[in-house]
Specification:
Blueprint (H helix, E strand, L loop, with lengths): L2 H9 L4 E3 L7 E8 L3 E8 L4 E4 L4 H5 L3 E3 L3
Antiparallel strand pairs: 1-5, 2-3, 3-4
Length: 70
């Protein structure tokens, strides 16, 4: 799916990933913070890290977005 379609899923709380990402254990989801509002976070299961995330130009144009299934 493209990023526009992926964004709809993200807005509904779903976890997504890209096939093109090097890390197989990465996914992105939205996080609601009452101070900052909605933001994207990216989670790496393998290293147990959570970071804020901003999509790159290549992420925005990518057609390889898919739902992350645990």
């Amino acid at each position: 799916m493209n990023f526009s379609e992926a964004l709809m899923y993200l807005k509904h709380g779903r976890k997504l990933k890209r096939r093109g990402w090097n890390g197989k254990n990465l996914f992105v989801q939205t996080y609601k913070d009452f101070i900052c509002g909605d933001m994207f976070i990216i989670i790496n299961i393998r290293t147990a890290t959570i970071n804020s995330w901003v999509p790159s130009v290549s992420d925005l144009y990518a057609e390889d977005w898919e739902l992350y299934e645990e």
